[in-house]
Design goal:
Blueprint: H1 10-17, E1 25-29, E2 42-46, H2 47-58, H3 70-83, H4 87-100
Antiparallel strand pairs: 1-2
Helix pairs in contact: 2-4
């Protein structure tokens, strides 16, 4: 810890690969594993989006939060490019679709 704030490795990692983390935003681990700091497992979201994602993740069975492999990350990036959607939107939608039983 530095002062009263704990320093996380994923914050500087995110900033190395992307822009600075905007005010009011946090870094979220897509697969729910906070020890998995691979860049493809990280997205930058608002605080409210972060709370929503954690609420949704609590409803998923453990097997649904499998590791995000490089192949899955590449598919996710292609989908974002094709649809013009952000990575956080696609992740949230995939979780909501899974929970609703959509294919």
């Amino acid at each position: 810890m530095i002062g009263s704030r704990r320093q996380y490795i994923y914050r500087p990692l995110w900033q190395k690969h992307h822009d600075a983390i905007a005010e009011g935003h946090v870094i979220h681990h897509i697969n729910g594993n906070s020890a998995d700091d691979r860049i493809e497992n990280l997205i930058c979201v608002t605080h409210s989006e972060h709370r929503r994602l954690h609420h949704l993740l609590k409803r998923l069975p453990e097997t649904a939060t499998a590791r995000i492999t490089p192949e899955v990350s590449a598919r996710l990036d292609r989908h974002c490019e094709e649809t013009g959607r952000t990575r956080q939107w696609v992740v949230r939608q995939a979780i909501e679709d899974y929970l609703s039983g959509a294919e």
